[in-house]
Design a protein that fits this description.
Length: about 110
């Protein structure tokens, strides 16, 4: 049981949840995902009614959480969704929570 708790604790990184807790960051993630390719701060900023410097900080937060990748091209930084890492993290969290529930019988389906 301790091993499951450790696995779950390792996956539940506050920075990941903090990055997704802001509506502007979620909007930026959605915009990048919809575009399907690398975008500059200016290109992706169209979705948010905030200053471009704030958009840049939001993108940096998402990158530090592993949700986005950043690539410098000349003087520009281009951002893309780190889809494999994001999907893998979410899937691992779901699996760890499900395994914890299976072990405890405390988690019952509501319905």
């Amino acid at each position: 049981m301790a091993n499951r708790d450790e696995d779950l604790s390792a996956l539940m990184v506050p920075a990941f949840f903090k990055a997704l807790a802001d509506p502007n960051r979620v909007a930026l993630l959605k915009e990048l995902a919809a575009r399907g390719g690398a975008c500059t701060v200016t290109e992706v900023a169209v979705c948010c009614p905030v200053d471009i410097s704030v958009v840049s900080r939001h993108l940096s937060t998402l990158r530090k959480a592993g949700i986005l990748q950043a690539t410098k091209v000349g003087r520009e930084v281009r951002y893309t969704v780190n889809a494999r890492a994001l999907v893998s993290t979410l899937r691992e969290m779901a699996d760890a929570i499900e395994a914890s529930c299976d072990a405890q019988e405390a988690c019952k389906e509501v319905g």
